[in-house]
C-alpha cells in the first residue's frame, strides 16, 4: 500500500467487483484513496463499509478522514462513536490521541489535555497520523493548537462590528479577548462576536 497505492487501488477494485456485498474490498479501497489524499472518495467507501458491517475501527478511520478534511467536530463525533461501539478495543489504539487533536483544533484545551492524560505513560509515536512525540510533547503541541484556534477568534473579530471601532492596543480589549478565548476553550463551543467582546471590554 505504501509503496504503490495506485496498484493497491486497482486490486481493491477487483475485490469489489468479485464480491460487491463484502465490506473488505471497500475498506481496502478506502485505504488506497486515503493514501492518495483522495479524501472524499475515502469517505464514501467508509460510509459503504459502515452500512455493510459497522465496527469501531471503521468509525475511527472515518474520523481520521474527517480530520484530514479539517471537519473536526464531525471527526470528534466519529471518535466518540468508535469508543461507544467498543470501549476496550478503542482505548487500545490511538483514538484518544486523534480525538485530543480535534479538541485542540476546536479550541477546547481542557478536553484535549484530558485525552492526553489518559494516554499510556510510555506513549510515543512518529506522528504519521497524529501528533508526534511522547505525552509531554503531545501536551505541549495540544496547548499550541488550542491557542492557535483561539487566535482565529481574534482574526474573525476584526471583520465584526464593534472591534474595529476599538484601538487594538487598548488593554481593555486585550484582556477581553483573552477572556473570550478562555471561555471558548472551557465551553468547547463557538467564539464570540465583536459586540460581545466589545461589551466585555467596557468599550
List keywords for this structure.
single chain, 203 residues, mainly alpha, 2 strands, 69% helix, elongated, disordered C terminus
Secondary-structure map:
Layout: H1 5-18, H2 23-35, H3 39-52, H4 56-68, H5 72-85, H6 87-91, H7 95-105, H8 109-117, E1 124-125, E2 133-134, H9 135-157, H10 171-187, H11 194-201
Antiparallel strand pairs: 1-2
Helix pairs in contact: 1-2, 2-3, 3-4, 4-5, 5-7, 7-8, 7-9, 8-9, 9-10, 10-11
How would you characterize the overall build of this protein?
The chain has 203 residues and is mainly α. 69% of the residues lie in helices and 2% in strands. Strands 1-2 form a two-stranded antiparallel ribbon. It is elongated, with a radius of gyration of 21 Å. The N and C termini lie far apart (58 Å). Mean pLDDT is 83; it is low at 163-170 and 189-203.
Low-confidence stretches: 163-170, 189-203
The average pLDDT value, as a whole number, equals 83
Pattern of helices and strands: HHHHHHHHEEHHH
* Overall form: elongated
Strand order across the largest sheet: 1-2
> How far from one another are the termini?
58 Å
Largest sheet: 2 strands, antiparallel
Structural class: mainly alpha
Rg over alpha carbons: 21 Å
Number of helices: 11
Roughly what fraction of the amino acids lie in strands? under 5%
Characterize the quaternary organization of these chains.
single chain
Helix fraction?
Answer: 55-70%
Question: What is the count of β-strands?
Answer: 2
Amino acid at each position: 500500500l505504501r509503496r504503490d497505492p495506485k496498484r493497491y487501488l486497482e486490486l481493491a477494485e477487483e475485490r469489489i467487483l468479485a464480491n460487491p456485498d463484502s465490506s473488505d474490498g471497500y475498506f481496502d479501497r478506502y485505504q488506497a484513496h486515503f493514501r492518495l489524499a483522495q479524501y472524499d472518495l475515502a469517505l464514501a467507501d467508509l460510509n459503504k463499509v459502515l452500512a455493510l458491517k459497522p465496527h469501531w475501527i471503521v468509525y475511527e478511520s472515518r474520523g481520521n478522514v474527517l480530520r484530514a478534511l479539517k471537519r473536526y467536530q464531525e471527526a470528534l463525533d466519529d471518535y466518540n462513536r468508535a469508543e461507544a461501539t467498543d470501549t476496550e478495543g478503542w482505548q487500545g489504539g490511538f483514538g484518544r490521541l486523534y480525538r485530543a487533536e480535534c479538541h485542540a483544533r476546536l479550541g477546547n484545551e481542557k478536553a484535549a489535555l484530558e485525552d492526553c492524560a489518559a494516554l499510556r505513560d510510555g506513549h510515543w509515536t512518529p506522528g504519521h497520523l497524529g501528533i508526534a512525540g511522547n505525552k509531554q510533547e503531545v501536551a505541549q503541541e495540544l496547548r499550541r493548537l488550542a491557542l492557535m484556534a483561539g487566535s482565529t477568534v481574534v482574526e474573525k473579530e476584526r471583520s465584526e462590528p464593534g472591534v474595529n471601532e476599538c484601538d487594538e492596543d487598548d488593554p481593555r480589549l486585550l484582556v477581553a479577548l483573552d477572556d473570550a478565548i478562555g471561555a471558548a476553550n472551557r465551553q468547547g463551543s463557538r467564539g464570540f462576536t465583536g459586540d460581545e467582546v466589545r461589551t466585555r471590554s467596557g468599550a
